């Protein structure tokens, strides 16, 4: 059984891509076979992982694969092998998908159909979501039925999390299924008053049901990204490896 995880928060710049790359790297480092799917039309993970050329390439790509259901494409045709894990890159054409999927048949089930057609058994699939609530994020939530939530340790996260939880609930009701919240990744935490207050709020609000991890603001995370790898494959040591390893261990237990 492949465990699939959507890394989602519709608020922009909270660390979805950083979390996706480093959780995928941590899982791979622990011996798991991992596929990272870049579902964000911005293609940040794709570019970060050194696949900028593919982002601009012609079909077949993830955008064309999601745009049709007449003939489910073989997702293996759009998988790129990297040293740490495999990647399904985003494509610039994906910017029109939100519009194209509106009113289309099974518009929220496209990614699930692609996953069903995967002919290789990964241990984990990790999906980087766009900073919006729309068809693409719905596709990720429905296809994965597991969500890992990155959020900044600042007041604006409260409303963002309420909105995300409402969306998760609406998919659960619409499709009569359960989506598991796997944990909250408080990201880019700096030790100041607001962050400390928010960490307390996260613990009070979620601590009984979910693990709350703390990823500090670290330039090593940016440098690894700029080198096309997770911190686990980056030459520089970082204290955040231990935190991402803990997240991976938890995912191995529950996802
Ligand atoms: N823990 C961290 N330490 C230092 N820099 C970080 C950290 N987390 C994220 N960043 C930086 O902050 C910026 C936003 O992070 P990231 O791209 O992961 O967020 P995102 O939620 O994926 O953004 P978007 O909503 O645009 O997809 C990036 O430049 C990233 O390198
Ligand atoms: Mg991103």
UniProtKB/TrEMBL annotation:
One Pfam assignment: AAA_31
CDD domains: ParAB_family
Occurrences of domain AAA (ranges): 4-174
Name of the protein in question: AAA family ATPase
């Amino acid at each position: 059984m492949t465990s699939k995880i959507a890394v989602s928060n519709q608020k922009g710049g909270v660390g979805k891509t950083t979390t996706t790359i480093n959780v995928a790297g941590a899982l791979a480092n622990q011996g798991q076979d991992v596929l990272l799917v870049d579902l964000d039309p911005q293609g940040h993970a794709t570019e970060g992982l050194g696949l900028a050329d593919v982002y601009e390439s012609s079909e077949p790509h993830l955008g064309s694969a999601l745009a049709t259901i007449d003939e489910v494409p073989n997702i293996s045709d759009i998988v790129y092998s990297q040293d740490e894990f495999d990647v399904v890159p985003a494509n610039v054409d994906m910017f029109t998908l939100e519009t194209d999927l509106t009113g289309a048949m099974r518009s929220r089930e496209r990614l699930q159909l692609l996953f069903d057609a995967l002919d290789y058994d990964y241990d984990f699939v990790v999906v980087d979501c766009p900073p919006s609530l729309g068809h693409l994020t719905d596709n990720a939530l429905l296809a994965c039925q597991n969500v890992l939530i990155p959020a900044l340790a600042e007041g604006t996260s409260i409303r963002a999390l309420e909105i995300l939880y409402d969306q998760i609930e609406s998919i659960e009701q619409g499709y009569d299924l359960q989506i598991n919240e796997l944990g909250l990744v408080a990201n880019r935490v700096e030790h100041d008053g607001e962050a400390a207050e928010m960490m307390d709020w996260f613990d009070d609000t979620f601590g009984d049901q979910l693990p709350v991890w703390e990823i500090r603001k670290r330039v090593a995370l940016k440098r690894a990204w700029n080198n096309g790898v997770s911190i686990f494959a980056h030459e520089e040591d970082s204290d955040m490896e231990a935190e991402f390893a803990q997240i991976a261990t938890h995912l191995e237990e529950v996802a």
